[in-house]
From TrEMBL, chain A:
This is Alpha-D-ribose 1-methylphosphonate 5-phosphate C-P lyase. Keywords: Lyase. The lineage of its organism: Bacteria, Bacillati, Bacillota, Bacilli, Bacillales. GO terms for biological process: organic phosphonate catabolic process. GO terms for molecular function: 4 iron, 4 sulfur cluster binding; lyase activity. The keyword Lyase applies.
TrEMBL record, chain B:
Signal peptide: none annotated. One of its GO terms (biological process) is organic phosphonate catabolic process. It comes from the Bacteria. PANTHER family: PHOSPHONATES UTILIZATION ATP-BINDING PROTEIN PHNK-RELATED. Residues 8-275 form the ABC transporter domain. One of its GO terms (molecular function) is ATP hydrolysis activity. The lineage of its organism: Bacteria, Bacillati, Bacillota, Bacilli, Bacillales. SMART domains: AAA. This is Putative phosphonate transport system ATP-binding protein. It comes from Salinicoccus kekensis. The keyword Lipid metabolism does not apply. Keywords: ATP-binding, Nucleotide-binding.
Amino acid sequence: MVQNFAFLDEHSKKEIRRKTLKAIAVPGYQVPFASRELPIARGWGTGGLQLTLSLIGRDDIIKVIDQGSDESVNAVNIRKLIQDTTGVPETIDMNEATLVQSRHRIPEVPLRPSQILVLQVPMPEPLRAVEPSERVTKALHGDKEYSGAWIKMFEQIMKYGHVTDDADYPVLVNGRYVMAPSPIPRFDNPKMNDNEGLILLGAGREKKIYAVPPHTHVASLAFDDHPFEIEDFSDKVCRESGVSGVFMDELIDPDTGENYYVTNDTSYMLEQLNKEEEHVN
Amino acid sequence: MSTNDIVMSIRDVSKRFGEGCEVCREDTSTLNGNICPNCGTVHAVRDISFDLHEGEILGIVGESGSGKSTLMKMMYFDQENTSGDYYLRSYEEGAENVFDVSSQKKREIRNEQLGMVYQNPLHGLKINFSSMTNIAEKLIAGGSRNVGEMTARGDMFLEKVNIPLSRKFEAPKNFSGGMQQRVQIAKALSNYPPILLLDEVTTGLDLSVQADVLELIKEIQREMGVSMIVVSHDLAIIRMLCDRTMVLLNGEVIESGITDQILEDPQHEYTQQLVYSIL
């Protein structure tokens, strides 16, 4: 048997595209979709993968990242599956890629018009921690009743003096729907606001697709006297590349026992290093 | 009393569980208790009308299954009515039937114009969240987004209901039943609602704690002038709290009037039985 282009059969792609269009039409609204079985387990990026497979065409150039890295096992395997079933070229360069699938990061290089970023989502419902019933959360979204998301933050302020959500920090999209931005760090939240490209979010296990279309207003929830803040790396410098002002990983040098910082987005770091080298030559 | 001090009006409100049939839909006189012998439909609340005046406490008594709680749940939009009208002075000056407004508007009314204290604190509280957060939930739902203001309000109300402020960051699941009930009252009051609904608030509490909670309710009514509806099956509580009382049986009001009058000189056979059985 010959596998269809991009693994999924055309009817499945049609279903996913149709739901994607609806998601784009209603920014931040979680559209239920008929999530398909894939050769990877649900919860391992199947939502993102289905979006990618339904969108990809022969002219696309694909980039897959996992927490900033193009070379982690998850990224490599998903990229392999996409390439094996489509034959499209891959890249690690944000400027080349037309379609980017990512887990838990928005790349440092801003999206450009007509570029699509697909995010893998484990838990699409921002109110789930407070309200276990799907029927109820749907009604709450319908009534724009978001005190659940707020009291979760309020409780953290009561307990720890500040909001402790570091990833998956809830945002209000287009002034209407509160949305879980997938577990991207707070650092990436502002990148969603008024961005040039299309951001699609897919949750395969939870069977939901939602979207942030280009130039959509996205605001992180915050109390008047506890403003939203991103992680502060202003005084940190990447040990490998010397760049600053990006999201960094904190690591410990096993020889000296000292901690140091490295740029999390590896392709961005590589780009900076190459530029530097060109400059030297 | 003049008519403009009416804060709430209920007109011909009914709730039935089941479709109803030709026999019971129009004429409910053939019911067996509150159940239609023909189709089995339960008529939980039947054509109830009453007004609640500003600053008064209205009591609703009746046995289990008489429709007290169903009526209460409809007033707080926890349950949909089958028919009838519901007007609030605080909403559009009472010009619109609030049973007919959108669910978003109903939430708004719940959050800003009504306070509810359930018999079981589990229903009214998020038991794993701190007491302060529980109070803030009502304020956040009402549109507040300032942590400092909300905690100040929370402190004030927790103090009012005698919860030690040293325990304000503790979750109500660690509290005794009486304390949970007092946190619930603080939450219900936190938005200064003009109307407070109390559903069997002291049931299940021991006598000294009951006295505390009742004292608190009296005090709140005196200080804040809140109008209240108190549902109870306990006549002693009704006697202590309420200015006026309605007696419910099988979903119908069988007697209503000044509390003392009803308790001293009950007219209906069932009320007589109820009053004489408290000895």
